[in-house]
Write a structure and sequence with these properties.
The chain is of the alpha/beta class. It folds into 2 domains: about 200 residues, Rossmann fold (3-Layer(aba) Sandwich), CATH 3.40.50.720; about 240 residues, NAD(P)-binding Rossmann-like Domain (Rossmann fold, 3-Layer(aba) Sandwich), CATH 3.40.50.720. The protein is built from 19 helices and 14 strands. The chain has a 6-stranded parallel β-sheet with strand order 3-2-1-4-5-6, sandwiched between helices. Strands 11-10-9-12-13-14 form a 6-stranded parallel β-sheet. Helix 1 crosses helix 3, helix 12 runs antiparallel to helix 13 and helix 13 crosses helix 14. The C terminus is likely disordered.
């Protein structure tokens, strides 16, 4: 089989490469000639573990190619996937579908023979029907079907998520289109992956509902963490016991500085707006959005409080600026709210991230970027863990403490255990757990 993928961003590049791994001939197309040139040269424009090796493997096998010529990707393809961006509109938060609709027009102009046009992009309910209207206008006599096949890829684990997914959702009303999509995903049948066949409208809602529910779990446990701090309880113990209930599950019950990234912020906004458009307000989702916005702002206040109520002229070390580990993505990351707030309060920020510093630097002016965690901690009045990269879980805390002006460790990801922090001399502050007072002399020795 042969497919085209329109868009070589995160979703398009990962999906196209993994389809090639299934043995399918894939042509990925993008209007950005610079990006295509980099891909042809073997340079991957995004950070995703294992993707560079898989791309190289499929290119060498002749199953994966890159072009700026959309006609080359469309003509003769059994299916063409739309995998372009759907960023939130600034005026109302709804998904901007201009790139999706333009892709549909371009596809319609080059279709030859029966083609299944598939939306991989995250789009509001009703988009597939609009794409169908556009294709019919551009290509009145064209033979095609429009389907929805939402992606469920986690940044940092996207290849595994595609090759071994929890489920595949196929939104289609044509038996012929379903047959094509089933053939594309045939390797997953051997693993008995659940395949949910629905209407396009149902598939579109499934994507938003899934992300909104996960975002709800995050905001819920963050609210519980606030209660735990006031009551002297431990939110990790609460979450662990909750997660043992099969009806609830343990995933996404990790208290922290709030969610960010390319999906949850825009998808919750889009779902809330869609609910208003249809006269079915999503009040829980609207509350989740507000809780998360408040959460990120509150983290700066938490750091300031841990520093005695003021960070003016203090040197603050920060570990991690990506919204999560194993990615260089800083879109809507808590760091973009927390660090400017600390700077506005007079702090001097020294930061390190294993992958995201180049991405973050233009968005976070005035930050001193460091070569590793130890340089970021050196001479600081407080050290903040903002992203839970694995390499931050086993720091030499004695070395860290000796290099700091004041031994304050503010762990916004709860990666260290309370018992192991006792007796180390740190004033240790975490999320939804009791503080460790530490050695007050060491905390104030630079005051």
């Amino acid at each position: 089989m042969r497919i085209g993928v329109v868009g070589t961003g995160y979703v398009g590049l990962v999906s196209g490469t993994c389809f090639a791994e299934f043995g399918i001939d894939v042509v990925c197309v993008d209007k950005d000639a610079g990006k295509i040139d980099r891909l042809k040269a073997g340079e991957i424009p995004i950070y995703e573990p294992g993707l560079d090796d898989l791309v190289a493997k499929q290119v060498a096998a002749g199953r994966l190619s890159f072009t700026t010529d959309l006609a080359q990707a469309v003509r003769g393809s059994d299916a063409v996937f739309i995998a372009v961006g759907t960023p939130p509109r600034k005026d109302d938060g709804h998904a901007d579908l201009s790139y999706v609709y333009q892709a549909a027009r371009d596809i319609g102009a080059h279709m030859t023979g029966y083609t299944v046009v598939v939306t991989k992009s995250t789009v509001p309910v009703g988009t597939a029907r609009e794409i169908e209207k556009i294709l019919r206008q551009v290509c009145p006599n064209g033979e095609f079907d429009v389907c929805s096949n939402p992606e469920f890829l986690r940044e940092g684990a996207a290849i595994t998520d595609f090759l071994r997914p929890d489920r595949v959702v196929l939104g289609a009303t044509s038996d012929r289109a379903i047959e094509v999509l089933r053939a594309l995903y045939r390797p997953l049948y051997l693993n008995e992956t659940p395949i949910a066949v629905t209407t396009p409208e149902t598939a579109e809602i499934i994507k938003y509902a899934s992300n909104a529910f996960l975002a709800t779990k995050i905001s819920f446990i963050n609210e519980i963490a606030n209660l735990c701090e006031k009551a002297g309880a431990n939110v990790q113990d609460v979450a662990r016991a909750m997660g043992l209930d099969g009806r609830i599950g343990a995933k996404f019950l990790h208290a922290g500085p709030g969610y960010g990234g390319s999906c949850f912020p825009k998808d919750t906004l889009a779902l809330a707006q869609t609910g208003r458009d249809f006269g079915a307000p999503q009040r829980i989702v609207e509350a989740v959005i507000q809780v998360n916005a408040d959460r990120q702002r509150a983290m700066a206040e938490k750091i300031i409080a841990a520093c005695g109520g003021s960070v003016k002229d203090l040197k603050i070390g920060v570990l991690g600026v990506a919204f999560k580990p194993n990615t260089d993505d800083v879109r809507d990351a808590p760091s973009l709210v927390v660090l400017p707030a600390l700077q506005a309060a007079g702090a001097k920020i020294h930061a390190f991230d294993p992958a995201a510093m180049d991405t973050a630097a233009p968005l976070l002016p005035g930050i001193v970027w460091c070569k590793d965690a130890y340089e970021a901690a050196n001479g600081t009045d407080a050290l903040v863990i903002l992203t839970e990269w694995n390499e931050f879980r086993a720091l030499n805390l004695d070395r860290i403490g000796e290099s700091m002006s004041q031994k304050r460790l503010i762990d916004l990801r709860n990666i260290y255990k309370i018992p192991e922090m006792r007796g180390r001399g740190f004033h240790y502050v975490s999320i939804g757990r009791p503080e460790v007072e530490g050695d007050r002399k060491s905390v104030r020795k630079a005051s």
